[in-house]
């Protein structure tokens, strides 16, 4: 009996320790501490760690936040029980120039884009498809027609109208990815699939001008000339998700109007750009973190002012700004609030939730609207991310991608232009 009484407090004590340990583990998991942390030289490692938890270094490490290097820090319970190991990297942040300029995104700087193939009925009422038979595919860019450059849909239509039965086949010069091909094709006299006009010569293709839409330049590296924009993938062209986005270009866009966003109905910037004006940069990649490429030398760098890119560990909930254009080509600053920061130790496209608090912007746009994608987010003098998506049911709120991941994507070598999905 005496032995049982002596063991009882010990058992209770052990249970308390086990429960406490499990509670600590649960706390660590619920707060989602990242295993991999990057900080700037001199930055304090601020994590919500309190007694009975504490950080401990391995004997071989001499962690100094001011010294560039890699360090392993171990989180322990009561200074003895290991809970989790953190890999800390101290490195200088990249200095970039924040953007905010509205840009027109071109699928191609010249030619027209094939967005679909259609079957036709010839004079014998038989179905045929000259374009498909010639080898055309959605996404092909028609550069020339019988040796004459074409840059707008109307030029192709006019050339086909002039075709006569006695003529030989027309030769289309097309670009598919990086390959230029010459495809002979014979138009057929057929009924218009729309049913709104008499029979005419057609190729059986749906074509569009190469403008993919308006977005925002996020930032660029003044040393290499590399840029990032949009913050998310261009997922389709002319509403066609199966069309891969090829190596396009960007041009300066002029914002001429705004469509206010309301719950359930996203707003948008109304932008104009001339596809015949000089592009300011070439797009090399289309990824889940935005479009990336290289600015052309003539792009004006005269007022470059660099800003450090913030690491995730430096981003806090609270006041911030976005840079964007709401009229003409002038970049303006608007107040927002970062209301959530997602802990991440690997690239993800949703790292922040932001809320527009600027009264002027709310009055003009209702919050975040289409065309703001890519607008840089600045907090405490550092680039923390870029706007990506709006909350459809609450246009005052939206998502942002971390600038840290965008820089990583920008630095990654281009293997192949990503396919839209």
Automatic annotation (TrEMBL):
Any Pfam family matching the protein: Peptidase_S55
Q: Which organism is it from?
A: Hydrogenispora ethanolica
Give every Peptidase S55 domain span.
179-421
Q: Which SUPFAM superfamilies match?
A: PDZ domain-like, Trypsin-like serine proteases
Q: Which UniProt keywords apply?
A: Membrane, Transmembrane, Transmembrane helix
NCBIfam families to which the protein is assigned, alphabetical: spore_IV_B (TIGR02860)
Q: Which parts pass through the membrane?
A: 7-28
Where does the PDZ domain lie?
Answer: 131-178
Q: Which protein are we looking at?
A: SpoIVB peptidase
InterPro entries per the UniProt record, alphabetical:
PDZ, PDZ_sf, Peptidase_S1_PA, Peptidase_S55, SpoIVB
Show the SMART domains listed in the entry: PDZ
């Amino acid at each position: 009996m005496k032995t049982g009484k002596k063991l009882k407090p010990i058992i209770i004590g052990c249970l308390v320790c086990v429960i406490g340990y499990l509670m600590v583990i649960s706390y660590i998991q619920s707060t989602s501490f990242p295993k991999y942390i990057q900080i700037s030289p001199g930055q304090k490692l601020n994590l919500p760690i309190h007694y009975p938890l504490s950080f401990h270094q391995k004997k071989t490490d001499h962690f100094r936040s001011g010294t560039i290097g890699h360090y392993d820090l171990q989180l322990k319970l009561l200074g003895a029980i290991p809970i989790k190991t953190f890999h800390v990297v101290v490195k200088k942040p990249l200095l970039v120039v924040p953007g905010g300029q509205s840009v027109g995104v071109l699928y191609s700087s010249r030619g027209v884009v094939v967005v679909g193939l259609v079957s036709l009925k010839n004079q014998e009422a038989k179905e045929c498809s000259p374009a498909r038979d010639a080898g055309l595919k959605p996404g092909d860019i028609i550069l020339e027609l019988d040796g004459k450059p074409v840059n707008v849909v109307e030029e192709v239509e006019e050339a086909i109208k002039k075709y006569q039965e006695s003529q030989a086949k027309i030769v289309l010069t097309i670009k598919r990815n990086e390959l230029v091909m010459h495809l002979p094709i014979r138009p057929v006299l057929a009924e218009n699939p729309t049913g709104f006009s008499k029979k005419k010569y057609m190729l059986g293709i749906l074509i569009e001008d190469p403008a993919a839409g308006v977005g925002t330049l996020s930032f660029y590296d003044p040393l290499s000339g590399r840029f990032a924009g949009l913050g998310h993938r261009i997922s389709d062209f002319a509403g066609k998700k199966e069309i891969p986005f090829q190596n396009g270009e960007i041009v300066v866009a002029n914002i001429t109007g705004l469509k206010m966003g309301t719950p359930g109905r996203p707003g948008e910037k109304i932008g104009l750009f001339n596809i015949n004006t000089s592009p300011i940069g070439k797009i090399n990649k289309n990824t889940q973190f935005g479009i990336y490429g290289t600015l052309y030398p003539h792009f004006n760098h005269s007022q470059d002012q660099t800003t450090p890119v913030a690491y995730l560990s430096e981003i806090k909930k609270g006041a911030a700004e976005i840079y964007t254009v709401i009229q003409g080509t002038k970049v303006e600053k608007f107040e927002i609030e970062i209301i959530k920061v997602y802990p991440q130790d690997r690239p993800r496209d949703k790292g922040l939730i932001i809320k527009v608090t600027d009264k002027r912007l709310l009055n003009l746009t209702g919050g975040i609207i289409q065309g703001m994608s890519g607008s840089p987010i600045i907090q405490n003098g550092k680039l923390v991310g870029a706007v990506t998506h709006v909350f459809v049911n609450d246009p005052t709120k939206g998502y942002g991608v971390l600038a840290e991941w965008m820089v990583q994507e920008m630095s990654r070598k281009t293997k192949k232009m990503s396919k839209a999905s």
